[in-house]
Amino acid sequence: MNITFIGATRTVTGSLHLFEFNNQKFLLECGLYQGHREDAERINRTFPFKPKDIKAVVLSHAHLDHSGNLPNLVKRGFLGSIYCTPATKDIATIILLDSAKIQENDFEYLNKKQKEKGLPIKEPLYSIEDAEEAVTLFSEINYEETFEPVRGVKVTFYDAGHILGSSVILLEAEGNRILFSGDLGRENMPIIKDPVAVGDIDYLILESTYGGRIHKSFAGMTDELKGLIEQGKEKQSKIIIPAFAVERTQILVTMLKNLYEEGTLKDVPVYVDSPMATDVTEVFRNHPECYDKETYKMFADSDPFNFPGLQYVRDAEESKKLNEQQGPMIIMSASGMCEGGRVTHHLIHSIEDGKNMIIITGFQARGTLGRNILEGAEKVHIFNGEYVVRAQVHFMGGLSAHADGNDLVEYVQKVKNGRLKHVYLIHGDIDETMALQQHIIASNNIAVDIPQSGTQITV
Known about the structure:
Elements: E1 2-7, E2 16-21, E3 24-28, H1 37-45, E4 54-58, H2 64-67, H3 70-75, E5 81-84, H4 86-116, H5 128-135, E6 138-140, E7 147-150, E8 153-159, E9 167-173, E10 176-180, E11 203-207, H6 221-235, E12 238-242, H7 248-261, E13 270-273, H8 275-286, H9 293-301, E14 310-312, H10 316-322, E15 329-333, H11 343-350, E16 357-360, H12 369-374, E17 379-382, E18 385-388, E19 392-395, H13 405-416, E20 422-426, H14 430-443, E21 447-449, E22 456-458
Parallel strand pairs: 3-4, 4-5, 5-6, 10-11, 11-20, 12-15, 12-16, 13-14, 13-15, 16-19, 20-21
Antiparallel strand pairs: 1-2, 1-22, 2-3, 7-8, 8-9, 9-10, 17-18
Helix pairs in contact: 4-5, 4-8, 13-14
């Protein structure tokens, strides 16, 4: 088996890995690179192989940095199957169609500017039609059900515990067992099951997003949120929570449901103002087979994603009316890094009022509006305006869906079983990856490498 590491090497975005076995080529992941516009344009538009030569894609989960370039692959000639779990298919369908819509809208605006300057117009990376075509190629595979994406290679999905439907992927060929972690989740997180440790493997391809960091415990997060809401009730605050539409919103809703049931949310309406988050929540309702025991039991008694006082907002006019309402109230809205979507409008109308709150609940990339707010910027730019940050800013750091450094080292120890020969670290900025490399080597007598884009190995 030949493996070429292409994307998400020494970075956390654009996952893409080429596998070759007996002159058959298939991919693990086909994600969008998300970064500076020029780099993203170059990387996303160029495949270092002919898409028509790829027989299949095996997809670990639906996040855009793992699935987002599939429509472009199809546009450029790919005709094979895209294998994933049923929940991943349902979430990826929403994400890919939304990505295509955003690109078409962005390029429509860009091309108006191009024409005004007498410059040639540009095409989006892919269209809605390309995304719709990609969706038709999905092939659903259940957890622990073995299949062959190409002749002679057996593949099995196991729960990665990262987001709904996410998978750790086991590949078997000619006696070798290769485990690909995808994005690995954390133990004892709400809604979904814990990551499965697959033992008796020869090679491990492991993510390293937080390889050098330790997360806060999730256990105290509900109490922390309760305390912030109590403060907001006293000050009649609007509490704005930028939240990722997949997983983070659903976790927050279940936390708020618990707080409602104990009385904390009396007279505090809650709005999920994100059409995508609303659609994804419906996918969660349709896949109780992915739930942990606690959530499954909750689902048997009632809808874990609904409670009195909670409203899911689809209509744009209803969203705008929220800006006219007075607190106390909670608005959860995308995007999670405040780079677009409805949350930007809520920030415009709330950020300059000192009685309001902004609760950041996830990783904020450098250069994003969310990162600027989190780092204490006195003023921020939103669209064409400048706004003074007077709202209180809080960070809830225990909600990450990624394993931290300790989790990743522990995972290696769980899967090695005396047979593991080599670990390859991907999907992490180089500082995080190098920190994890050192920790693994210190606690295990195993070779650990950090491939670059284009690194080829034979196993």
